[in-house]
Amino acid sequence: MSTQALLGQLLLGLVNGSFYAMLSMGLALIFGLLNVINFAHGALYMMGAYAAWIGLTYFGLDYWTMLVCGPLLVGLFGILIERTMLRYLYKLDHLYGMLLTYGITLLLEGTFRSFFGVSGQSYPVPGALRGSADLGFMVLPIYRAWIVLASAVICFTTWFVIERTRLGTYLRAGTENPKLVESFGINVPLMATLTFGFGVALAALAGVLAAPVFQVTPLMGSNLVIVVFAVVVIGGMGSIMGSILTGLGIGVIEGLTRYFYPEASATVVFVTMAIILLLRPAGLFGKEK
Q1: How does pLDDT run across 256-271, given as a tens digit for each residue?
Q2: Which residues contact 81 (CB under 8 A, 6 or more apart)?
Q3: Residue 21: which of 193, 202, 218, 161 has the closest Cα?
Q4: CA angle at residue 264 from 10 to 207, to 5 degrees?
Q5: How far apart are CA 104 and CA 125, in angstroms?
Q6: Cα–Cα distance between 98 and 154 in angstroms, integer?
Q7: CA 37/CA 98 separation, integer angstroms
Q8: For a surface tag, which of 119, 178, 188, 253 has the fewest beta carbons within 10 Å of its beta carbon?
């Protein structure tokens, strides 16, 4: 067994874990603060990747421009969804929100498939992040290192804002007792709309980061979102820190499994979920009711 091959699989697992962490954090944020299971998260991640590809192909906008504009555009689309459809389901059973967002997923995937087909589109790695660095014990692709670094900064900054600032306190209080928060002059419905838009923008940002690594296709988020939901369940529904740490951990576990026993790499996350739920039904960082 080669040490360099093992480190390569660990790096690949860490990159995948970075995407799991960003996407599951967005899901946990939306569920924890709005009580909505957003099944369209994978499709919105796909929209972020397509935003980067369309921006470059049709408008000549580079990677760095779309890294900002892509999440903003998709986040505005998420706000439109929340304002026109989702806000009417907050007081209903979770099933209604899940069915609505699943329908949105089918609509988005079908629309992009009709315009761009099912074959994947390639997106070039930006010039500043091309190449690799020889660390002696392994060769480190610069773009993959950038993904891990960017994901870590985004995830832990979001956690800090939600858990350690006054804005985060208002957000959490608005979900637990909206009438009390509104009595202090805070617009709770607007806060909910912006929270959903931000969660969607996080998914789109992950999509832009993923575009140079994976083929950009209409179905690129459909399989990924199943794993991301498993990560959220393992970490604890609504726990942002749980989603971040679990996403990174599951990515590393996948990488190790792919090295030692490749046949189990596609199912290890679900086996892990089953074991965790047997031992701790609320998840690793979830609160027991």
Answers
A1: 999 889 899 889 999 9
A2: 40, 104, 196, 200
A3: 202
A4: 55
A5: 30
A6: 26
A7: 5
A8: 119
Q: Band the pLDDT of 8: cuts 50, 70, 90.
A: confident
Q: Across the strands, what pairs with 140?
A: 133
Q: What is the pLDDT of residue 1?
A: 57
Q: 5: how many CB neighbours lie within 10 A of its CB?
A: 11
H/E element, 132: strand 132-134
Q: What is the mean pLDDT of residues 75-86?
A: 95
- 31-69 tens-digit pLDDT: 888 888 899 999 999 999 999 999 999 999 999 999 999
The dihedrals phi and psi of 133, each to the nearest 5 degrees, come to -115, 130
Q: What is the DSSP string of 239-273?
A: -HHHHHHHHHHHHHHHHHHHHH-GGGTTTHHHHHH
Helix (H) or strand (E) holding 181: helix 178-182
Tokens representing residue 99 in the block? 């069915």
Helix or strand or coil: residue 216?
strand
Place of tokens 């296709």: 217
Residue 245 has pLDDT above 60, yes or no: yes
H/E segment holding residue 75: helix 63-84
* All residues at 6 or more sequence positions from 49 whose CB lies less than 8 Å from its CB, including other chains: 123, 207, 208, 210, 211, 214, 216, 220
CA atoms of 242 and 230, how far apart (whole Å): 12
Q: pLDDT tier at 288 (50, 70, 90 boundaries)?
A: low
CATH, domain range 3-117+129-279: 1.10.3470
Matching residue, tokens 């709309």: 193
Residue 289 has which token pair? 């009711």
Separation CA 55–CA 45 (nearest Å): 16
